[in-house]
Amino acid sequence: MSDLLSAVLEAHGGVDRWRRLSTCTATIVSEGELFRAKGMAQDPQPRQMTVSLHEEHASVRPFGGPDQRSDFTPGRTAIERADGSVVAERFEHRKGFAGHTFETPWDPLDRAYFNGYALWTYLTTPFFMLMPGMAVHEKEPWAESPTETWRGLRVSFPDGIESHSREQDFYFGDDFLVRRHDYHVDIAGGFAAAHYMYDIAEADGIRLPTKRRAYRRGPDGRPLRDHLMVGIDLSDVHYF
Q1: Domain count, the chain
Q2: 43 falls in which pLDDT band (50, 70, 90)?
């Protein structure tokens, strides 16, 4: 493990604390250009997100109806009723995005798939980097401004973990807390994103950003602030 990764993990709550936990719940409110482009315009209703910390499993409720929830794992995406009966499901979902462009519409299962892997990644950052098969190494720093430079980690995700793209970059401030996350959204034409994080809070010994804003990323690496692709506000976060 690199010195930078060790410092990052400690700053976000520490490995010992993380290993004693199994689940995260949070209230989420989402918005953004991506959802409108996909025909899935997001309403401002708060929703309850639940993720497993040591395996990729996520669920949000309500989803598509007051008595419905999504259920995501790498091999299956489903919409279920509160009693567990299946409304719709899809297996090996990633294959279904082949040939998609940014303009290709999504259906509710596509939206559930994106929501599942994305929020799982966000609510387990940076600790998911400890999972088997993750390749993590320090990369060149990012000059955010003339007076602020952030150190970076490049993560290569293994087969069996679904995420935006196989290679993603994470940047950290002098306090080793996460500031920015760069990736390509492969299931939406592969557009480049610069994802900024704000308002760090502590929840049950884990530190995490509670405001996320993902913009299109220009060729120079700078965010295109006129294109807010996804915005997420988190509240009432609990790890247990």
Answers
A1: 1
A2: confident
